[in-house]
Amino acid sequence: MSLLSTAQLALDRGGRTLYRHLDLEIRTGEVWAVLGPNGTGKSSLLQQLTGLLPSPPGAIRLAGRALGDWPSRELARFRALILQEQEMGVPMRVWDRVLLGCHPHLGLWGRVGAEEQARVQAVLATMDLSALAGRLLQELSGGERQRVALAAAMVQAPRLWLADEPNNHLDPRHQLRWMEWLRQRVITQAGAAIVALHDVNLAARFCDRILLLFPDGNHIQGDRRQVLQASVLTSLYDCPVGQVDGPGFPVFYWGRPGPD
Ligand SMILES: Nc1ncnc2c1ncn2[C@@H]1O[C@H](COP(=O)(O)OP(=O)(O)OP(=O)(O)O)[C@@H](O)[C@H]1O
Question: Does ligand 1 lie within 6 Å of residue 44's CB atom?
């Protein structure tokens, strides 16, 4: 089943055409990576797919229904957007920030019950945040704050995940853990995800389908084995990329092999 589709989507921004004629079909159980150099439109695409940037009526459909026809509350239950930079605004504790993720699921009076408390507790434990529950966001490291943003989306429990560089600031253990969690979640809950990444190796390991955005406005999409090839990535990033065999997946490296 298609959870997100686009028809001839296009976007001009910053005086440039970022993409044209973009037809996407993101199905249940799929994790997509969007890759491309700085400024090619990865964040802009995610913003457009969520409705933060305009698109023609019917050009974006979620589960078959045009984006503009979704009531906002239903939409908030269906999909989550994880932004690249987290706005901190008013001082807030970790627990309260993560609890905000429950809001689309609360009843008319917005009362938080034992079920929501338990959900927050479980997600905090998964993200190694239990000990920080009472701390202010302003007092956290960049990686800790990023884990809080991911935790809030996990509590929101959407079917469709749109995540802009979710691994920003995360150490390798937490990157791996979160990507594994997302993949598992998408498979077991019949969900789907589209994730903007700079780490090609995470894409090669955890994503099924890849969308490449080129600086000249062109794009390529397809199965990860077909798209993620050293020659394609070299041309995408205008930087030499090599490839070696990893344990069950390819490993890419930047630059030419060293002399030793
Ligand atoms: N608010 C804005 N107003 C006008 N132009 C913008 C705005 N935000 C981004 N742009 C421009 O849109 C283009 C795409 O930016 P975008 O942030 O989508 O790229 P990106 O692929 O996510 O880059 P990065 O890898 O650096 O995160 C860039 O040329 C950028 O300068």
Answer: yes
DSSP letter, residue 93: B
- 41: exposed, middle or buried (C-beta count within 10 Å: 0-12, 13-18, 19+)? buried
What is the value of pTM for the model shown?
0.94
Query: How many degrees, rounded to 5, is the angle at CA 105 between CA 102 and CA 110?
Result: 80
ipTM: 0.98
- Of 186, 162, 179, the closest CA to residue 82 belongs to 162
48 lines ligand 1 (CB under 6 A): no
Q: Ligand 1: does its nearest atom lie under 6 Å from the Cβ of 15?
A: no
Sign of dihedral through CA atoms 31, 37, 39, 40?
negative
Could you report the per-residue pLDDT of 77-123, keeping only the tens digit for each?
Answer: 999 999 877 666 788 899 999 998 887 776 666 677 788 889 999 99
